[in-house]
Amino acid sequence: MTAESGARPRITAGAVRELLSDPKIFSELPAGLDDDADLALDSLGLVWFLHQLELRYGVEVEPSEAFLAEFTSIRRITEYLADVHEP
Predict the structure, then answer these.
(1) Which of 8, 28, 81, 87 lies deepest, with the highest CB count within 10 Å?
(2) Entry pTM
(3) Which of 27, 25, 31 is nearest to 71 (CA)?
(4) Which residues form the Carrier domain (predicted)?
């Protein structure tokens, strides 16, 4: 048995919050923001967020309208990534 594993790390709400805290995505994400609070990602922030997901977690998400409706809160983003991009 080898130590190598193709499994991706689970993307948690904390990880999503950390990525969203990048000033290029959300310049002033409140520290105490509830996971269900409404978010409004602009197109540049969304592209940067998706780029960071790919760099840090190897998750490739194509920007399409089908999933944009899912990215309305930290919880919804986390659930979408768990449903669609976790083995």
Answers:
(1) 81
(2) 0.78
(3) 25
(4) 37-81
